[in-house]
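fyi for ur records
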Amino acid sequence: MANYIQEIRALVGHKPIILNTAAGILVDEQQRVLLNLRTDTHNWSLPGGYLEYGETYATACVREYEEDSGLKVEIVAPIGIFDRGETAYPNGDIAQTITRLFLVRAVGGQVLRQATNETLKLAYFDFDQLPPLLNQQTADLIKAGQNFIKQA
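which gave:
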């Protein structure tokens, strides 16, 4: 069922809803995290997005990571589930997201060199020098990823 979120939004409009998302955290050799500058909110987040009907969190993470970044990834390890946080989008949509975070490793593709309908650009950032983030949940995801990587 493609465009599941669009179909739901057509039924409920901008009413606040709960949505499931998956995100991946990828670090480079300098231990910097890859973030994407979003086209909808013009701030930064981890590559990832909403599950389509019938998808698993892991499948959605791999699909969304490639859509947002151009990189093919594989799941290295699950990190956690995050269920606190609401996002108000510029179009009026409001959602509480339940996000499953994974540590991922690049296995192909290449970082996007041009903007897409979801990503304006990509960049690696030091964990202590992050740009303006989408929301508190994004900050929580990045912090949990950083802690997970330190302990590994």
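The chain has a mean pLDDT of 95. thats all i got for now
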